[in-house]
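Worked problem 6 (solution included).
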Amino acid sequence: MAVDYLDNPREVLINIWQSYHVGLFLLGCLGLTLLWMWAARRLFGGMWDVPSSGRARLLPLAAAVGLAAVLVPSLNLKGARVCNDRTVNEVANNGALSFFAAAWTHHLEFADFYKTMPLEEAYRRARRLTAGPEASFEAEGDSIRRRVAGDPSRPRLNVVILLEESLGSEFWGSLGRAHTLTPEMDKLAAEEGLLFTNIYACGNRTVRGMEGVLSSFPPLPGGSIVKRDLSDNVETTARVLKRDGYSTLFVYGGHGLFDSMRSYAVRNGYDRFIEQKHFAHPTFTTIWGVCDEDIFGRTIEECRELARAGRPFFATALSVSNHKPYIYPRGRIPEDPARRKREHAVKYSDFALGQFFRAARKEAFWTNTVFVVVADHGARVYGKQSIPIRSYEIPVLIVGPAVVKAPGRIGQLGSSLDVSPTVLGLIGRPYETMFFGQDLLKGRPEAGRALLNHNRDIGLLAQDRLVVLGLMQTEEFYAGDPKRVDMELVSKPADADRELEQDAIALYQVADDLYTHRLYRIDGELRPGVRLVVGALEALGAEVGIDLGRDEMGVAQEFLDAAQVCAGVQQVRGVTVPQLMRGQARVQTGDGKVLLETKLQQARRDRGRLFRPAQKDGGVAGGRQAEQFPVALNRRQGRFANRDLPLLPALAADPDKTLAPIDIVHP
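Solution. The predicted structure is:
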């Protein structure tokens, strides 16, 4: 986790200063240092006067270097494992080595470190696991894109998701705590809410909660997709609802630069992102941002304005108060914020939520809005398992007279990934999705599952069994009900354990494949790889007719159709649209002659020259912007090429055409 926070040193350092007695600690260290220097001078001062030859000094150094070289192969990126208790193993770890191992694997290649299976088998399993009673797949093969049936005549209900910082189930009286810290939420759940009682966070950081709740995406090892560099266009709840005509809004009390939250939101479906700088006169602030009551008050104001505009809206609010140093405005709850106790910060968060719902009831949008309260993760990590699942339990509470006609409790097993599919199911309108989660109100009890991440371990929980996939292709198996007992390590996995392992491998491998090839999306501007093949076909004289507003799957299919028309291809063999977009497609004639082969993934990072048939006035043929097509046509070799890359057809352009070069730089 220390590596994860390196991108945000300001927040981290000030939080440490506010949360701990850093000054006293530094003074103590300084005092001990001075004392040791004085003692060393008195006891060992004469050792520096002993003469020593250069050879005598080099021998110990050479021995140390040689010993280090011999011991390097014994280093294990997973760290020490002296027993089956995670906490004991972490204490036994070398701190410096653990830090560098975490940094080394922060942006790891999934297939290099974790178990995999043939990609076709992985997609087959993933399709089975993501299939739903009302969903139909849009394409065969390497795709999990589905259309979920619904009634298009049903109203487009507003949606407000309150993503609560660290508000784990352990604090809720309605979820088993003897002395509740959440009286407001307990009352709301008992009187008018739908409370899900068996839900687990997919990680232990806010960005994990965001990717789970808002993107319904598995928590891959390494960094969350909120912070990764290929997340400029991924599927989110905001995108799903925007396709149905919604306005979208994200309200956050901190700085949008923190953990790339603003970048993730505005690039993936949110129209506006409100952050700390947009609160002119906050009631109270910490290093993490403005207090929860200000965040929720601003959310009410913004939702009111969106409702007046006459369009349905989707709003997400992310709170910050339930975080170290656990301080909040005085006078809201009886407890003194100067004591800086976690339990008091939880009570304040509950107070702010209660205040929000009292205000929301007075608004015109109350009757046609679905409200969701969900924690981003639990409060702290404890437990001996590699993934300490008991500390991952979180509440999900759905409120709103439009969808909750009577209070209820739902015990279906699920995770953060299932929140959005469940809400969309309550709305009941048709939609397209790439989500890995499922509708908890329509799934079979035995189909419940939770995908989890802790450090570099990833796991899958189902039917009281947990499989953990670790670095260096390792695996662990646990059994037991995590709500009642500590799950115990299984030394001899049964067939059911091995089957769960295969399901876990498939889900994470498919998620990694979709993300790294930028396929976890449905709509948006054409990717450079697709623009590349379109430009190549147009240079051959094809009438492609691309609409940049369309989704890429449709564009890729149009590419295949255009290839057949322009080159007289008798048939397209062994090519699926996802394969084409992934850069693994080959188009060939009926007699087996390769017409066009794509290797798009490399082309994203390359620079090239675009050659197009020239017009007499020196313009570019076709009336399209040349910068959109980073390809080059090498007429003598009879192929398109971007240096040594990507399109290799056996068909050349018309030799009578004049070719005009235009220099471009691939973005």
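Discussion: DSSP finds 19 helices and 25 strands in the chain.
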